[in-house]
Amino acid sequence: MKFLTTPIPKDIEKLINLGMHKQAKENILKRLKKPIPESLKKRLKFELFRLDLLEKAYPYSEKEAFELFKKNFKSAKKQEFETLLENGYIDFRFINGKKRFQERFHYNVGFTLNEYKKRQKKDKNRSDLRKLTNEAIVRLLKTKQEKTYSVSAKISIKRKNPKDEDVSVWLPVPFEKFQQTSVKITNASHDYVLSSPKILQKTVHMKGKDTETFWVEFSYNVSEWIGENSKYKYKPTKADLSEKPPHVLFTPYLKEILQKILKGVKPKNDYEIAKNIYDYLTKNVYYSYVLPYALYDNIPEYVTTVFSGDCGFYAITFITICRLAGIPAKWQSGWFATPYGASPHDWALIYLKDFGWIPVDLSFGGSRRDNEEMRMFYFGNLDGFRMFANLDFQADFYPKKKYFRNDPYDNQVGEMESKDGYIIDTESEIEILTFKEIK
To answer: How far apart are CA 243 and CA 323, in angstroms?
Structure first.
């Protein structure tokens, strides 16, 4: 993905910014016929893919968006919808001359404005999940006794608009490392190839028709993680301290951010440096749903200028700034998995001299900024409601995917492609089949 540091031609960039996608695509195809460097060729092909993703991410007309707004907030009126729109709280853009609204704009209004958070329709499942998690935090803070859970789960993917094509599919499965043990693949819809042990985003690879549903079932044990009880003591590698374009870059702006974080404080060790970075992000950045990651050129700079983002945006920003400060840091991601179900989730690991590798979950910490003890729990500790399938950000699959991934950086819900190109009209389902405490 290093080609993303290659600039887009200004005339094409202008058309994209104006929402003139049809003209932008035509210009890109013309430019690809010119004698241009390979890096620009890759960038322009990626821009064609990003335009497709962008159109998918803004599916609603204004009428449809208002209906969604009314459904989500009690006593919602058209005038307040229009006021929020004028004040920039509702995410929309013009695409080919039509106003289109982002698919989760209504949730972000609730994340951003407390008044609307109070008016959101109650989500009992979300309340149950927070209660379950907070009870685990309180128990762990009090006892420091880690529990282990045995979990079985299923992930499936299918194409929304099949064309009776031959396709390849990659589905995430758990690693057997750190807090996870006893991993087994128990069933699958198709014959599969398991990725090699050296691959840092673990998958099963299947082939079949796009008219079929592809799925895999697996089981694993997962332990809660009190940071002082190290789960893995191997030493960090050069990669754990390195840049990785286009997102993990030690840019002048991020160097300035690190200087600001450490200004006026005199950290005595790597723990205190990392804690100051954690404090800065969890106290100043607010959670919001984001567009597909492929649509961003530099996520850490986005987070530290807009001061919002989702769990992965928190994690990769923290990893980047920690590495910039000389603290080894790596990625962990997969699911937030509980007896009530599972959803995609990302967090980080850092290596500290006195502890070894410890977990850091900034989005869970940031969402508890009103309770200092709970906020600090997630700096060095982790609940047991996790499944991780990825140990690196922006890692190749096995076998390698030929075309662009819907998410070039992470893999939580699977990917599909045909022999002729990428497929973005997929839908995935995550199911928790059993979840029980074993010790």
So the answer is: 8
